[in-house]
Amino acid sequence: GKQNENGVIDILEGWAVCNHCYMAYRTHSKKDDDGKRKNYGLNGIHDHLKQCKSKPKINLTNNQGQNVQTTTSAIQPKFAYNKKVLPEKYILKLKDAELKFVVAGSHSFNSLENDGILKLIYFSGRQSIQEEALSKFDQYTHQIRSSLEESIQQHCVAATADIWTDDLMKRSYLDFTVFFVNDIYELKHTLLRCKHFEEEKSGINIWYEIEKIFQSFNLSFRDTPVATDQGSNMIKALSLTDEARYPCLAHRTNTVLETA
C-alpha cells in the first residue's frame, strides 16, 4: 500500500509485494465492465519467489561438517500485511476471504494455523474466524427471516426436503430449501439447512429436524407444502403433523427411467 496525506495506508487492490525485495506483482487481472475478473492468481508472484535473490540465507552445518545454505523465515510469510496499519475495511475483507476459504472449501478451522499456510500469508487465526463464522451465520439467518416474513404472511412459501449421502465420505445429509414469491412476483429460493444427519433415518427423527427448521425461520405449520421423494421415512415424517406433502416430479421421473 501507500501512505496518503492523512497518514492512512491505501491498499492497492490486485497487487502483492515480495517481502524480501519489495518487487510488486499483479495478483489478478483488472475488472471488466461487469465487475468480473478474467484471471485470478497470476503466476508472476510464485515464479518470482522461486528465484528471488534478496532472500536472506543462513549457513548451517550438516553431518559431514559442510556448510549448507537455506532460506530463513520459517514463520515469516513471503507475502504479508501489517495488521496494525491495515484499514478496518480491509481487515474485514480479509476475514471474509478467510471465512470463505474455510466454508466453501470444507476446510477445518485448524487449517488456518497450518505451518505451510503460515509460510505464505498471515491469517487472523482459528478463534477469530470461528467468531466471524458465528457472526455471519446470525447475520444471514436474520436476513433470510426478514425476506421470508411477507411471503409467509401471504401464504406464498413452499419447500423441498431430501436426505442424501455423500459418495466419497459416506455421510448422510438432510437439506431443506424454501421457494417463495416476492412483492414483484419473482420466484426466489434459499437453502435453510444442510445438516450432517447422524441419527437413525426414521420418520420421527426426520420430523424433529424439520420442526426445528420451521420454528427457526417462523414457517407456518400445515401451510408450507413440501415436495419430497417417495421414501417411506420422509412420508412418515410429514404425516406426523399432517403437513402438506407432494411427490417430487424429478425423483419420480428418475425412478421411471431406471425401471423402464
UniProtKB/TrEMBL annotation:
<dbReference type="InterPro" id="IPR052035">
    <property type="entry name" value="ZnF_BED_domain_contain"/>
</dbReference>
<keyword id="KW-0539">Nucleus</keyword>
<dbReference type="GO" id="GO:0005634">
    <property type="term" value="C:nucleus"/>
</dbReference>
<keyword id="KW-0479">Metal-binding</keyword>
<keyword id="KW-0863">Zinc-finger</keyword>
<dbReference type="GO" id="GO:0008270">
    <property type="term" value="F:zinc ion binding"/>
</dbReference>
<keyword id="KW-0862">Zinc</keyword>
<protein>
    <submittedName>
        <fullName>Uncharacterized protein</fullName>
    </submittedName>
</protein>
<dbReference type="InterPro" id="IPR012337">
    <property type="entry name" value="RNaseH-like_sf"/>
</dbReference>
